[in-house]
């Protein structure tokens, strides 16, 4: 299992990406936040001698997890059914610097996210937002033994965790984070109760998209406060 951690600078909004590979094939978890970010990850995989992915899993539909998908060739994209409709709507929006500016003028709270998108994308003509080609509702196991489990939550309705039994790892995506900044209220906090429900003695590591990995003991201490 290989993990490219998320970007610490909040203005760049780069989610972490993982690759799970064995003789049965390889699974990419999240696509990168842009085609150029995806190409950076591809170069790192090549340098590390890791195989190209056969499956691409979306932990949820937010842009920093899926906008790189169009740069990954020959993959089956797997995601939760509720995210598919949301991504089809996103794909119909006229993404461009002009559109970003117009939307921010309509809703100033979109400013940080939309500025990050403008920084992320080198070519708007290249960008294509791709819904999953295979959807599931509750959980599904891929041919490699990787398990996808829908958990929902306040951050995104399609939030999915990815369990890698052979590595004793659970990839949490953004599932326990509060809602995105433009939707967040002062009362919104991290959903530690959701993490608590996910803790499992057979899983030794918990990896979130924008946070440092935690051991099982770390996670229990965090929940205990």
From TrEMBL:
Q: Name one Pfam family in it.
A: Lactamase_B
Q: Which residues form the Metallo-beta-lactamase domain?
A: 14-210
SMART domains xref list: Lactamase_B (SM00849)
Could you tell me what this protein is called? Metallo-beta-lactamase domain-containing protein
Q: Which organism is it from?
A: Micromonospora lutea
Q: Which InterPro entries match?
A: Metallo-B-lactamas (IPR001279), NDM-1-like (IPR050855), RibonucZ/Hydroxyglut_hydro (IPR036866)
Spell out the Gene3D superfamilies in the cross-references: Ribonuclease Z/Hydroxyacylglutathione hydrolase-like
């Amino acid at each position: 299992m290989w993990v490219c951690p998320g970007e610490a600078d909040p203005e760049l909004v780069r989610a972490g990406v993982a690759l799970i590979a064995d003789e049965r094939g390889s699974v990419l978890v999240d696509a990168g936040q842009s085609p150029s970010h995806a190409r950076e990850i591809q170069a790192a995989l090549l340098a590390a001698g890791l195989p190209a992915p056969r499956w691409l899993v979306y932990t949820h539909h937010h842009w920093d997890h899926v906008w790189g998908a169009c740069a990954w060739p020959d993959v089956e994209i797997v995601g939760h059914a509720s995210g598919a409709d949301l991504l089809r709507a996103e794909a119909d929006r006229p993404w461009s610097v002009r559109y970003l500016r117009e939307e921010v003028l309509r809703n100033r709270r979109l400013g940080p996210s939309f500025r990050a998108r403008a920084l992320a994308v080198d070519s708007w003509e290249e960008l294509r937002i791709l819904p999953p080609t295979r959807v599931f509702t509750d959980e599904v196991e891929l041919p490699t033994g990787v398990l996808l489990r829908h958990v929902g939550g306040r951050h995104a309705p399609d939030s999915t965790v990815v369990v890698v039994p052979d590595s004793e790892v659970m990839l949490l995506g953004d599932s326990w984070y509060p809602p995105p900044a433009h939707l967040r209220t002062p009362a919104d906090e991290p959903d530690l109760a959701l993490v608590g429900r996910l803790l499992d003695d057979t899983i030794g590591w918990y990896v979130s998209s924008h946070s440092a990995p935690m051991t099982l003991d770390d996670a229990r201490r965090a929940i205990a406060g």
